[in-house]
Design goal:
This protein is α+β, with helices and mostly antiparallel strands. The chain has helices at about 30-35, 35-40, 60-80, 90-100, 110-115, 120-130, 135-140, 145-155, 160-165, 170-185, 195-200, 215-235, 235-255, 270-275, 280-285, 285-295, 305-315, 330-340, 345-350, 385-390, 390-395, 410-415, 420-430, and strands at about 10-15, 20-25, 200-205, 210, 320, 350-355, 375, 385, 405-410. The strands form 3 sheets. Strands 3-4-7-8 form a 4-stranded mixed β-sheet. Strands 5-9-6 form a 3-stranded antiparallel β-sheet. It starts with 7 loop residues before the first strand and ends with a helix. The structure holds calcium ion. Calcium ion binds near residues 65, 101 and 177. Calcium ion binds near residues 65, 102 and 173. InterPro entries: dGTPase-like (IPR050135), HD/PDEase_dom (IPR003607), HD_assoc_2 (IPR045509), HD_domain (IPR006674). It holds the Pfam family HD_assoc_2. It comes from Halalkalibacter nanhaiisediminis. One of its GO terms (biological process) is dGTP catabolic process.
Protein backbone atom coordinates (compact mmCIF):
# COMPACT_ATOMS: atom_id res chain seq x y z
CA UNK A 1 0.00 0.00 0.00
CA UNK A 2 1.33 3.42 -0.86
CA UNK A 3 1.65 5.94 1.89
CA UNK A 4 -1.25 8.43 1.84
CA UNK A 5 -0.37 11.86 0.56
CA UNK A 6 -0.13 14.17 3.55
CA UNK A 7 2.58 16.71 2.86
CA UNK A 8 2.38 19.52 5.37
CA UNK A 9 3.61 23.09 5.03
CA UNK A 10 6.56 23.94 7.19
CA UNK A 11 4.56 26.67 8.82
CA UNK A 12 0.81 26.97 9.04
CA UNK A 13 -0.69 29.65 6.79
CA UNK A 14 -3.46 31.77 8.26
CA UNK A 15 -6.03 33.92 6.48
CA UNK A 16 -7.81 36.60 8.45
CA UNK A 17 -11.54 36.19 7.98
CA UNK A 18 -14.29 38.43 9.34
CA UNK A 19 -16.69 35.53 9.88
CA UNK A 20 -14.49 32.75 11.27
CA UNK A 21 -11.71 35.06 12.52
CA UNK A 22 -9.00 32.81 11.09
CA UNK A 23 -8.76 30.21 8.38
CA UNK A 24 -5.96 27.72 8.96
CA UNK A 25 -4.07 25.89 6.22
CA UNK A 26 -1.49 23.27 7.04
CA UNK A 27 -1.84 20.90 4.08
CA UNK A 28 0.39 21.73 1.15
CA UNK A 29 -2.28 20.44 -1.23
CA UNK A 30 -4.88 22.94 0.03
CA UNK A 31 -2.41 25.81 -0.09
CA UNK A 32 -1.50 24.95 -3.68
CA UNK A 33 -5.15 24.63 -4.73
CA UNK A 34 -5.83 28.11 -3.37
CA UNK A 35 -2.94 29.39 -5.48
CA UNK A 36 -4.27 28.08 -8.80
CA UNK A 37 -5.59 30.59 -11.30
CA UNK A 38 -8.98 28.87 -11.48
CA UNK A 39 -9.44 29.30 -7.74
CA UNK A 40 -8.09 32.86 -7.73
CA UNK A 41 -10.69 33.70 -10.37
CA UNK A 42 -13.34 33.33 -7.66
CA UNK A 43 -12.11 36.64 -6.24
CA UNK A 44 -13.79 38.24 -9.25
CA UNK A 45 -17.18 36.57 -8.82
CA UNK A 46 -19.48 37.89 -6.12
CA UNK A 47 -21.11 35.40 -3.83
CA UNK A 48 -24.56 36.97 -3.98
CA UNK A 49 -24.81 38.19 -7.57
CA UNK A 50 -26.90 41.34 -7.75
CA UNK A 51 -27.71 41.49 -4.03
CA UNK A 52 -25.32 44.43 -3.65
CA UNK A 53 -27.91 46.70 -5.28
CA UNK A 54 -30.13 46.04 -2.26
CA UNK A 55 -27.60 45.51 0.53
CA UNK A 56 -24.58 47.56 -0.45
CA UNK A 57 -22.27 45.58 1.82
CA UNK A 58 -22.84 42.37 -0.10
CA UNK A 59 -19.65 42.65 -2.14
CA UNK A 60 -18.10 39.45 -0.82
CA UNK A 61 -16.91 36.89 -3.32
CA UNK A 62 -17.06 33.18 -3.94
CA UNK A 63 -13.40 33.14 -2.93
CA UNK A 64 -14.26 34.24 0.64
CA UNK A 65 -17.09 31.74 0.85
CA UNK A 66 -15.05 28.83 -0.51
CA UNK A 67 -12.33 29.42 2.07
CA UNK A 68 -15.03 29.56 4.74
CA UNK A 69 -16.55 26.22 3.71
CA UNK A 70 -13.07 24.72 3.78
CA UNK A 71 -12.47 26.07 7.29
CA UNK A 72 -15.77 24.76 8.67
CA UNK A 73 -15.08 21.35 7.11
CA UNK A 74 -11.60 21.37 8.64
CA UNK A 75 -13.13 22.02 12.05
CA UNK A 76 -15.82 19.35 11.65
CA UNK A 77 -13.09 16.84 10.80
CA UNK A 78 -11.08 17.82 13.83
CA UNK A 79 -14.12 16.88 15.92
CA UNK A 80 -14.56 13.63 13.97
CA UNK A 81 -10.98 12.47 14.30
CA UNK A 82 -10.78 9.16 16.16
CA UNK A 83 -14.57 8.71 16.34
CA UNK A 84 -16.25 5.54 15.07
CA UNK A 85 -17.42 5.68 11.41
CA UNK A 86 -14.88 8.33 10.46
CA UNK A 87 -11.87 7.27 8.46
CA UNK A 88 -9.26 10.00 8.55
CA UNK A 89 -7.80 8.89 5.20
CA UNK A 90 -10.82 10.69 3.66
CA UNK A 91 -9.78 13.97 5.25
CA UNK A 92 -7.92 15.51 2.34
CA UNK A 93 -10.69 14.46 -0.04
CA UNK A 94 -13.34 16.20 2.08
CA UNK A 95 -11.22 19.34 2.43
CA UNK A 96 -10.49 19.54 -1.29
CA UNK A 97 -14.16 19.04 -2.18
CA UNK A 98 -15.17 21.73 0.34
CA UNK A 99 -12.70 24.20 -1.09
CA UNK A 100 -13.61 23.51 -4.72
CA UNK A 101 -17.36 22.95 -4.51
CA UNK A 102 -18.21 26.32 -6.12
CA UNK A 103 -15.22 26.66 -8.45
CA UNK A 104 -17.45 26.42 -11.54
CA UNK A 105 -19.50 29.50 -10.72
CA UNK A 106 -19.36 32.22 -13.32
CA UNK A 107 -20.30 35.89 -13.31
CA UNK A 108 -23.89 36.41 -12.11
CA UNK A 109 -24.45 32.66 -12.40
CA UNK A 110 -28.16 32.68 -11.87
CA UNK A 111 -28.98 34.78 -14.95
CA UNK A 112 -26.05 33.62 -17.03
CA UNK A 113 -27.01 29.98 -16.65
CA UNK A 114 -30.63 30.65 -17.46
CA UNK A 115 -29.92 32.53 -20.69
CA UNK A 116 -26.98 30.47 -21.94
CA UNK A 117 -28.35 27.17 -20.71
CA UNK A 118 -25.23 26.11 -18.86
CA UNK A 119 -24.74 24.84 -15.36
CA UNK A 120 -22.04 25.74 -12.85
CA UNK A 121 -21.99 22.16 -11.59
CA UNK A 122 -20.91 20.94 -15.01
CA UNK A 123 -18.19 23.57 -15.12
CA UNK A 124 -17.01 22.58 -11.67
CA UNK A 125 -16.59 19.06 -12.92
CA UNK A 126 -14.72 20.19 -16.04
CA UNK A 127 -12.40 22.42 -14.03
CA UNK A 128 -11.55 19.55 -11.68
CA UNK A 129 -11.12 16.92 -14.40
CA UNK A 130 -9.96 19.04 -17.36
CA UNK A 131 -6.65 20.60 -18.31
CA UNK A 132 -6.35 23.05 -15.46
CA UNK A 133 -3.93 23.94 -12.71
CA UNK A 134 -6.42 22.55 -10.21
CA UNK A 135 -6.38 19.18 -11.95
CA UNK A 136 -2.57 19.14 -11.92
CA UNK A 137 -2.45 19.82 -8.19
CA UNK A 138 -5.08 17.16 -7.41
CA UNK A 139 -3.22 14.56 -9.49
CA UNK A 140 -0.33 14.72 -7.05
CA UNK A 141 -2.39 12.73 -4.57
CA UNK A 142 -3.25 9.96 -7.02
CA UNK A 143 -4.53 9.47 -10.54
CA UNK A 144 -8.07 8.86 -9.32
CA UNK A 145 -8.14 11.70 -6.79
CA UNK A 146 -9.60 14.38 -9.14
CA UNK A 147 -12.47 12.04 -9.97
CA UNK A 148 -13.11 11.36 -6.29
CA UNK A 149 -13.26 15.11 -5.57
CA UNK A 150 -15.72 15.60 -8.44
CA UNK A 151 -17.81 12.69 -7.15
CA UNK A 152 -18.04 14.14 -3.65
CA UNK A 153 -19.20 17.48 -5.06
CA UNK A 154 -21.72 15.74 -7.33
CA UNK A 155 -22.90 13.57 -4.43
CA UNK A 156 -22.13 10.33 -6.23
CA UNK A 157 -19.18 9.36 -4.05
CA UNK A 158 -19.51 5.95 -2.40
CA UNK A 159 -19.01 7.19 1.16
CA UNK A 160 -22.11 9.33 1.78
CA UNK A 161 -20.73 10.54 5.09
CA UNK A 162 -18.06 12.55 3.23
CA UNK A 163 -20.69 14.03 0.92
CA UNK A 164 -23.01 14.98 3.74
CA UNK A 165 -20.35 17.11 5.46
CA UNK A 166 -20.30 19.41 2.42
CA UNK A 167 -23.79 18.98 1.11
CA UNK A 168 -26.82 18.12 3.21
CA UNK A 169 -29.49 19.96 5.17
CA UNK A 170 -26.92 21.01 7.71
CA UNK A 171 -23.52 21.23 6.09
CA UNK A 172 -20.37 23.30 5.87
CA UNK A 173 -21.62 25.11 2.76
CA UNK A 174 -24.85 26.40 4.32
CA UNK A 175 -23.28 27.14 7.67
CA UNK A 176 -20.75 29.35 5.95
CA UNK A 177 -23.01 31.21 3.58
CA UNK A 178 -25.72 31.96 6.12
CA UNK A 179 -23.26 33.59 8.49
CA UNK A 180 -21.20 35.22 5.76
CA UNK A 181 -24.18 36.61 3.87
CA UNK A 182 -25.65 37.91 7.14
CA UNK A 183 -22.35 39.56 8.02
CA UNK A 184 -21.87 41.29 4.67
CA UNK A 185 -25.48 42.32 4.14
CA UNK A 186 -25.59 43.60 7.71
CA UNK A 187 -28.95 41.99 8.50
CA UNK A 188 -29.67 40.71 11.98
CA UNK A 189 -30.95 37.29 10.87
CA UNK A 190 -28.63 34.51 9.83
CA UNK A 191 -26.84 34.14 13.11
CA UNK A 192 -26.74 30.90 15.06
CA UNK A 193 -24.38 29.15 17.39
CA UNK A 194 -22.08 27.29 15.03
CA UNK A 195 -19.57 26.43 17.76
CA UNK A 196 -22.30 24.51 19.52
CA UNK A 197 -23.42 22.73 16.36
CA UNK A 198 -19.84 21.68 15.59
CA UNK A 199 -19.58 20.14 19.05
CA UNK A 200 -22.77 18.07 18.67
CA UNK A 201 -22.18 16.76 15.15
CA UNK A 202 -21.41 13.04 15.03
CA UNK A 203 -20.36 10.81 12.13
CA UNK A 204 -22.61 7.83 11.37
CA UNK A 205 -22.38 5.23 8.58
CA UNK A 206 -23.74 7.40 5.83
CA UNK A 207 -24.50 10.82 7.29
CA UNK A 208 -23.66 13.42 9.88
CA UNK A 209 -26.16 13.38 12.78
CA UNK A 210 -26.73 15.74 15.69
CA UNK A 211 -26.76 14.86 19.36
CA UNK A 212 -30.23 15.51 20.73
CA UNK A 213 -28.85 17.99 23.26
CA UNK A 214 -27.92 20.24 20.32
CA UNK A 215 -31.45 20.45 18.96
CA UNK A 216 -32.06 24.06 19.96
CA UNK A 217 -28.92 25.26 18.22
CA UNK A 218 -30.12 23.47 15.08
CA UNK A 219 -33.57 25.07 15.42
CA UNK A 220 -31.85 28.45 15.39
CA UNK A 221 -29.93 27.49 12.29
CA UNK A 222 -33.13 26.39 10.49
CA UNK A 223 -34.91 29.61 11.45
CA UNK A 224 -32.00 31.68 10.25
CA UNK A 225 -32.16 29.89 6.93
CA UNK A 226 -35.86 30.56 6.67
CA UNK A 227 -35.43 34.25 7.41
CA UNK A 228 -32.42 34.74 5.17
CA UNK A 229 -34.32 33.25 2.24
CA UNK A 230 -37.15 35.69 2.45
CA UNK A 231 -35.31 38.75 3.74
CA UNK A 232 -32.14 38.52 1.66
CA UNK A 233 -32.07 35.86 -1.05
CA UNK A 234 -35.56 36.53 -2.48
CA UNK A 235 -35.49 40.26 -1.93
CA UNK A 236 -37.69 41.83 -4.62
CA UNK A 237 -35.21 44.62 -5.42
CA UNK A 238 -32.40 42.13 -5.98
CA UNK A 239 -34.74 40.20 -8.24
CA UNK A 240 -35.41 43.36 -10.23
CA UNK A 241 -31.69 43.76 -10.94
CA UNK A 242 -31.54 40.05 -11.77
CA UNK A 243 -34.44 40.46 -14.23
CA UNK A 244 -32.64 43.29 -16.02
CA UNK A 245 -29.39 41.35 -16.06
CA UNK A 246 -31.04 38.31 -17.70
CA UNK A 247 -32.63 40.56 -20.27
CA UNK A 248 -29.25 42.12 -21.12
CA UNK A 249 -27.79 38.67 -21.79
CA UNK A 250 -30.91 37.69 -23.73
CA UNK A 251 -30.82 40.85 -25.84
CA UNK A 252 -27.12 40.55 -26.63
CA UNK A 253 -27.62 36.94 -27.70
CA UNK A 254 -30.63 37.80 -29.82
CA UNK A 255 -28.83 40.68 -31.52
CA UNK A 256 -25.88 38.45 -32.26
CA UNK A 257 -28.17 35.83 -33.76
CA UNK A 258 -29.86 38.43 -35.99
CA UNK A 259 -26.47 39.57 -37.36
CA UNK A 260 -26.61 42.93 -35.65
CA UNK A 261 -23.30 44.76 -35.91
CA UNK A 262 -22.14 45.64 -32.40
CA UNK A 263 -20.11 48.82 -32.01
CA UNK A 264 -18.18 46.86 -29.43
CA UNK A 265 -18.19 43.22 -30.43
CA UNK A 266 -18.66 40.91 -27.45
CA UNK A 267 -15.84 38.46 -28.23
CA UNK A 268 -15.86 37.03 -24.74
CA UNK A 269 -19.43 35.83 -25.15
CA UNK A 270 -19.31 34.51 -28.73
CA UNK A 271 -18.85 30.88 -27.86
CA UNK A 272 -21.77 31.07 -25.39
CA UNK A 273 -24.02 32.66 -28.00
CA UNK A 274 -23.20 29.64 -30.19
CA UNK A 275 -23.63 26.90 -27.67
CA UNK A 276 -21.97 25.60 -24.60
CA UNK A 277 -18.62 27.36 -24.96
CA UNK A 278 -15.20 25.93 -24.18
CA UNK A 279 -13.67 25.63 -20.73
CA UNK A 280 -11.01 28.19 -21.61
CA UNK A 281 -13.63 30.70 -22.71
CA UNK A 282 -15.57 30.09 -19.55
CA UNK A 283 -12.57 30.64 -17.32
CA UNK A 284 -11.93 33.99 -19.01
CA UNK A 285 -15.33 35.22 -17.87
CA UNK A 286 -15.70 37.02 -14.59
CA UNK A 287 -17.73 39.95 -13.32
CA UNK A 288 -15.08 42.46 -14.36
CA UNK A 289 -15.35 41.49 -18.04
CA UNK A 290 -19.15 41.26 -17.87
CA UNK A 291 -19.50 44.72 -16.37
CA UNK A 292 -17.04 46.02 -18.95
CA UNK A 293 -19.45 45.00 -21.70
CA UNK A 294 -22.42 46.49 -19.87
CA UNK A 295 -20.48 49.72 -19.61
CA UNK A 296 -19.71 49.95 -23.32
CA UNK A 297 -23.08 48.61 -24.45
CA UNK A 298 -24.66 51.70 -22.98
CA UNK A 299 -23.57 53.32 -26.24
CA UNK A 300 -24.99 50.68 -28.58
CA UNK A 301 -27.39 51.68 -31.35
CA UNK A 302 -29.88 49.09 -30.18
CA UNK A 303 -32.18 50.98 -27.84
CA UNK A 304 -33.17 47.99 -25.76
CA UNK A 305 -29.63 46.82 -25.07
CA UNK A 306 -28.35 50.29 -24.26
CA UNK A 307 -31.34 51.14 -22.08
CA UNK A 308 -31.06 47.91 -20.07
CA UNK A 309 -27.34 48.49 -19.50
CA UNK A 310 -27.93 52.08 -18.38
CA UNK A 311 -30.58 50.79 -16.00
CA UNK A 312 -28.41 48.06 -14.56
CA UNK A 313 -25.31 50.19 -14.03
CA UNK A 314 -27.14 53.17 -12.59
CA UNK A 315 -29.64 51.18 -10.58
CA UNK A 316 -32.70 52.44 -12.47
CA UNK A 317 -34.48 49.24 -11.69
CA UNK A 318 -37.90 47.97 -12.66
CA UNK A 319 -40.68 48.40 -10.15
CA UNK A 320 -42.90 45.51 -9.23
CA UNK A 321 -46.42 44.64 -8.18
CA UNK A 322 -47.75 41.38 -6.83
CA UNK A 323 -49.08 39.55 -9.84
CA UNK A 324 -50.13 35.95 -10.01
CA UNK A 325 -50.27 35.05 -13.71
CA UNK A 326 -52.51 32.08 -12.94
CA UNK A 327 -55.14 34.35 -11.47
CA UNK A 328 -54.85 37.09 -14.05
CA UNK A 329 -54.88 35.14 -17.30
CA UNK A 330 -57.08 37.71 -19.00
CA UNK A 331 -54.96 40.70 -18.12
CA UNK A 332 -51.77 39.23 -19.47
CA UNK A 333 -52.41 39.49 -23.27
CA UNK A 334 -54.03 42.86 -22.68
CA UNK A 335 -50.95 44.13 -20.88
CA UNK A 336 -48.65 42.83 -23.57
CA UNK A 337 -50.65 44.62 -26.23
CA UNK A 338 -50.71 47.88 -24.27
CA UNK A 339 -46.96 47.66 -23.74
CA UNK A 340 -46.45 47.31 -27.47
CA UNK A 341 -48.65 50.35 -28.05
CA UNK A 342 -46.54 52.26 -25.54
CA UNK A 343 -43.46 51.33 -27.57
CA UNK A 344 -42.13 48.89 -24.98
CA UNK A 345 -41.17 45.40 -26.08
CA UNK A 346 -42.98 43.17 -23.55
CA UNK A 347 -40.35 40.45 -23.99
CA UNK A 348 -37.94 42.77 -22.18
CA UNK A 349 -40.03 45.19 -20.20
CA UNK A 350 -42.87 43.11 -18.81
CA UNK A 351 -41.54 40.26 -16.75
CA UNK A 352 -43.14 37.87 -14.27
CA UNK A 353 -40.68 36.50 -11.74
CA UNK A 354 -41.69 33.75 -9.35
CA UNK A 355 -39.49 33.16 -6.37
CA UNK A 356 -40.03 29.42 -6.56
CA UNK A 357 -37.83 29.52 -9.66
CA UNK A 358 -34.96 30.24 -7.31
CA UNK A 359 -33.27 27.65 -5.12
CA UNK A 360 -35.75 27.49 -2.32
CA UNK A 361 -34.58 25.17 0.33
CA UNK A 362 -35.25 25.94 3.91
CA UNK A 363 -36.17 22.85 5.77
CA UNK A 364 -38.33 20.42 3.84
CA UNK A 365 -37.59 16.86 4.91
CA UNK A 366 -37.59 14.16 2.31
CA UNK A 367 -38.35 16.35 -0.65
CA UNK A 368 -35.47 15.17 -2.78
CA UNK A 369 -33.52 12.03 -2.28
CA UNK A 370 -30.22 13.81 -1.81
CA UNK A 371 -31.74 16.25 0.64
CA UNK A 372 -31.46 13.94 3.55
CA UNK A 373 -33.39 15.17 6.54
CA UNK A 374 -31.52 16.12 9.68
CA UNK A 375 -31.37 13.30 12.18
CA UNK A 376 -30.99 13.65 15.90
CA UNK A 377 -29.33 10.87 17.80
CA UNK A 378 -31.13 10.21 21.06
CA UNK A 379 -29.34 8.76 24.10
CA UNK A 380 -30.51 5.19 23.30
CA UNK A 381 -28.59 5.48 20.02
CA UNK A 382 -31.73 5.64 17.86
CA UNK A 383 -32.17 8.31 15.18
CA UNK A 384 -35.15 10.66 15.09
CA UNK A 385 -35.96 13.03 12.25
CA UNK A 386 -35.66 16.65 13.45
CA UNK A 387 -39.17 17.92 12.63
CA UNK A 388 -40.66 15.08 14.71
CA UNK A 389 -38.82 16.29 17.77
CA UNK A 390 -38.94 20.02 17.26
CA UNK A 391 -42.21 21.96 17.20
CA UNK A 392 -40.42 25.01 15.84
CA UNK A 393 -39.06 23.14 12.85
CA UNK A 394 -42.29 21.26 12.32
CA UNK A 395 -44.15 24.56 12.03
CA UNK A 396 -42.11 25.75 9.04
CA UNK A 397 -41.39 22.41 7.39
CA UNK A 398 -42.77 21.47 4.04
CA UNK A 399 -44.56 24.76 3.47
CA UNK A 400 -43.90 25.94 0.02
CA UNK A 401 -44.36 29.67 -0.28
CA UNK A 402 -44.28 30.98 -3.79
CA UNK A 403 -44.62 34.58 -4.68
CA UNK A 404 -45.13 36.10 -8.08
CA UNK A 405 -44.10 39.57 -9.00
CA UNK A 406 -44.52 41.54 -12.17
CA UNK A 407 -41.59 43.79 -13.08
CA UNK A 408 -41.81 46.76 -15.42
CA UNK A 409 -40.21 50.23 -15.93
CA UNK A 410 -42.51 52.50 -13.93
CA UNK A 411 -40.35 55.57 -14.66
CA UNK A 412 -41.13 55.19 -18.37
CA UNK A 413 -44.83 54.65 -17.76
CA UNK A 414 -44.99 57.79 -15.67
CA UNK A 415 -43.37 59.92 -18.34
CA UNK A 416 -46.46 61.25 -20.12
CA UNK A 417 -44.75 63.17 -22.88
CA UNK A 418 -45.54 60.34 -25.28
CA UNK A 419 -48.26 57.65 -25.38
CA UNK A 420 -50.04 59.33 -22.51
CA UNK A 421 -53.37 57.52 -22.86
CA UNK A 422 -51.97 54.06 -23.19
CA UNK A 423 -49.57 54.59 -20.29
CA UNK A 424 -52.47 55.67 -18.12
CA UNK A 425 -54.38 52.54 -19.09
CA UNK A 426 -51.42 50.37 -18.13
CA UNK A 427 -51.02 52.09 -14.78
CA UNK A 428 -54.71 51.66 -14.06
CA UNK A 429 -54.51 47.97 -14.91
CA UNK A 430 -51.46 47.49 -12.67
CA UNK A 431 -52.82 49.77 -10.01
CA UNK A 432 -49.70 51.95 -9.80
CA1 LIG B 1 -21.55 27.19 -1.79
Amino acid sequence: MTKPYDRQLEEEKVFKDPVHRYIHVRDELIWDLIGTKEFQRLRRVRQLGTTYVTFHGAEHTRFNHSLGVYEITRRILEEFKGRPHWDDSERLLALSAALLHDVGHGPFSHSFEKVFDTDHEEWTREIILGETEINQVLLRVSTDFPQAVADVIEKTYSNKLVTSIISSQIDADRMDYLQRDAYYTGVSYGHFDMERILRVMRPMEDQVVIKQSGMHAVEDYIMSRYQMYWQVYFHPVTRSAEVILSKIFKRAKELYESDYIFKHAPHHFYSFFHGKGSLNDYLRLDEAITLYYFQIWQEEEDRILSDLCVRFLNRRLFKYVEFNPNQRMNDWPKLQELFRQADLNPDYYLVVDSSSDLPYDFYRPGEEEERLPIHLIIPSGKLRELSRESDVVEAISGKKRTDHKLYFPLDYLEDEREHKDVKQKIRALLNV
